Predict the structure.
Amino acid sequence: MISVEKLNSYQDQIIKWFQTDIWSSESGVQLIIIAVGFTMAWAITRASKPALNDLINKLSVPFRITEILHTLMRVFLPFVAMFFIFLGAKIAGPGGLDFNTGFSMAIVKILLAWIFIRLVSQLIEQKFARNVISLTVLSIAALSIFGILDQTTQTLDALGFSIGDFRLSALSVIKGTLGIFILLYGALFLAKLLDKRLASARGLTPSSRVLISKITRIALIVTALLIGVTSAGIDLSLFAVFSGAVGLGIGFGLQKVISNLFSGMLLLLDQSIKPGDIIELDGTFGWVNQMGARFTEIVTRDNKSYLVPNEEFITQHVVNWSHGNTLVRVETTFGVHYDSDPHLIKKIATEAAGKIDRVVDSPAPVCHLVEFGDSSLNFVLRYWIKDAEKGITNTKGDVMLSVWDIFKEHKIEIPYPHREVFMHEPPKKALKKKAT
């Protein structure tokens, strides 16, 4: 651990820099120049920025150029402030004050660095990552411009403690945190690029694309964490016992999460369920829209999304309507009057089913007489469809309407139960007894 005397020496250097470079005889004039520059920049920006944005939106230029112009507008205020501060410093320079190396010119350099960093950081898509990286780089640039970067790093390095041969300081924590953040963002960015490339790979099945994407994402994140931790100078062997105990606790606490994670991987490997399949699970009928690490999204016909844990697809009874083949057979039952010709019924019923657009021609619809009922001849009409994701009930309804129309055309009756009530007069002896 660094000595207290050395730590006090670093603090004295920073205080001396503040007294000589910031709080000097010239500081009052320079602070006025800086304040006036920022005030004028704020007033000009507030007055002109809306008009400039409207002008950019009205330009007949490609969208990419419009985005670049809007990005430049984000640094309009620091650019105007830099101009006025620089101009004020040059005007006040002949008065005997050295502004070339003073506080005002340092602010000009920081504003210039701010403009450059903001423009370059627009290449980063995620807003949070863009702000963190921009603030970090700007802080380092400011410390370097003021000439206290070495003193700051030495002070941060002095704030720490030792565990055996390993020393943990504030500087190593900051470096490790920033390194892990940058590496994680890079890993997620590479995973996103890989997802886009896999989406355009037509030679892979949807399940293979999802599996490759998830394995690659996990591998990149784990690699980024290991590199970030080791680059910070942290010996992972120090956390072996602690991580084992924590891992055991996490294993018990997150056993359902781990079970769902591995269940999802098993589903992707054996391809029993894949995106686009039509499935039925515990009365829920819909198609698989997305398979995540923890759950699978099932979208029903009424556009409800059911997030089903992956473990249920392994342990529960699941009906996959499109597993191996998208053909699905649908049945419709009906009954006709006993006066009807069953041969004619079979013929016209199959013709009625064949008129529906969603019913396929091969296999062809079939109709069978299945029962001599109490008051009707009972038939079953079977037909096939290939797009079960568009619904089963609506297809049944279309077929039944078509059967109804063709029955009316051939004057075929569909029987319904009749009930007769007979009223019997009570015996005369019972009536006489009741009267007395």
